Amino acid sequence: MNAQAAFMDTDFTQLLVNTVDSGEDANKRALTNTVLAPRFYTTDFDAMDKIDVSSVRQEWDIMMQEYEGDNNHDHFQRDEGFALEVKSLMEKLDENLKQEFYDFLIGSLTSEFSGCILYNEVRKNIDNPDIKKLMSFMARDESRHAGFLNQSLKDFNFGIDLGELKRTKKYTFFKPKFIFYATYLSEKIGYARYITIFRQLEKHPDKRFHPIFKWFERWCNDEYRHGESFALIMRADPKLLKGINIWWIRFFLLAVYATMYVRDHTRPALHNAMGLKATEYDFAVFRITSEISKQVFPILLDIDHPKFKEGLDQLTALSLKMNETNEKSGLFKYLKKGWLAAQAFVVFTKLYFIPVIKSELPQQVRLSPSW
After folding, report:
1. Alpha-carbon distance 226 to 134, whole Å?
2. Quick one: residue 131, left, alpha or beta (phi over 0 = left, psi -120 to 50 = alpha)?
3. Alpha helices, DSSP H, located in 33-173
4. Residue 180 CB burial class (10 angstroms; 0-12, 13-18, ≥19)
5. Which of 10, 128, 252, 353 could serve as a FRET partner for 263 with CA atoms 20 to 30 Å apart?
6. What sign does the dihedral 119-120-121-125 (CA atoms) show?
7. Using CB atoms within 10 A of its CB, is residue 147 exposed (0-12), middle (13-18) or buried (19+)?
8. How is 136-201 classified by DSSP, letter by letter?
9. What is the spatial distance between Cα 24 and Cα 30, in angstroms, rounded to a whole number?
10. How far is the C-alpha of 27 from the C-alpha of 40, rounded, in Å?
């Protein structure tokens, strides 16, 4: 993947606009490829096989012991009241909230299953004992997460055919370093999102409109540990955090933050139902993720820069305009889409060149999930 391809792939004007009214709709949604929809990835297995974690061996071995201990082995089980609670709560929700929640479940499932597939493929195609073992553990965790989410979709008769999804969804090739940057951030921001939602609903249980949110605290600790794994891999290879790679880190930080912001601001009903304001929630998640990422990234985005939020709002507005354009037809539709995409590219580029904050890497890599 080169720089031009990466920026072109980040089209923040693409939205998922169709409603989910059947299992067929849900499976089509899972197969959709846009910047706001999780993708499936493959990578260079030979390069993965050459990873050397000897310089972080002490922390690595402790982490492996935690994976082997598997403190969530009994967590992803539904109790007897789960389905009954779903039925009684969801019947009270308006259609907009239901659609946004379905989108949340499908997107989350696709993301978890994407990780499961990638980690399994790496495991099967390498001999490196350290990485092979790690990938087995992470694939195990992601499989549990995906299955748990799919069971919640089945409550609404929207279950995803995971075998068909694996066979037919488009795969994107990323070099290992891009997998490290993107997956580290995905896991850490996933932790920050889930723990922020859990803490909010812990304080306001009347806002918990679905029982799945009760599982988020222990669930997000899996995400956190996965991120720790990639942090150790990157710290074991210092060149990944220097030179031109600083610019790639900068790109992935911005792409992940911007994608989250745009997506969340197109789900107003979901956040309102939980008593969250999308902008405040997103910046709370950004702050947690930025604090965590000091363990491995030598730069942080200046999320308090006045142009940062302004640019994210512009990307959101362009996405909403694209949504309106998609409902039209004819040549004008394609010209308008091209113009909106060009504007999004310009806004993203301006955001990219906002000065960053330098951060000194700590001697100890791992952090405790204390939020």
Report:
1. 9
2. alpha
3. 45-49, 57-69, 82-90, 95-124, 129-154, 162-168
4. buried
5. 353
6. positive
7. middle
8. HHHHHHHHHHHHHHHHHHHTTT----HHHHHHHS-EEE--HHHHHHHHHHHHHHHHHHHHHHHHHH
9. 10
10. 15
CATH of 3-72+80-358, one of 3.30.200, 1.10.10, 1.10.620, 1.20.950: 1.10.620
117: its two tokens: 């597939």
CA distance 293 to 299: 9
Q: Span 85-110, mean pLDDT?
A: 88
| Structure tokens belonging to residue 183 | 């997956």
Using the predicted structure, report yes or no on whether residue 267 has a pLDDT greater than 90: no
Tokens for 232, please give them: 């150790």
pTM of this structure: 0.90
Those residues with Cβ within 8 angstroms of residue 348's Cβ, 6 or more apart along the chain or in another chain? 7, 10, 12, 254, 258, 311, 315
Report yes or no: 239 and 16 within 8 Å, Cβ to Cβ: no
Bridge-partner residues for 299, per DSSP?
Answer: 358
Decide if pLDDT at 17 tops 60: no
Cα distance between residue 274 and residue 199, in whole Å: 11
Look up residue 345 and give its two tokens.
């590219």
Distance, CA of 156 to CA of 90 (rounded, Å): 10
**Are the C-beta atoms of 195 and 183 separated by less than 8 Å?**
no
CA-based max dimension of the chain: 61
In tens, the pLDDT along 188-232 reads 999 999 999 999 999 999 999 999 999 999 999 999 999 999 999
Q: What is the pLDDT of residues 22-49, one digit of tens each?
A: 888 888 888 876 555 678 899 999 999 9
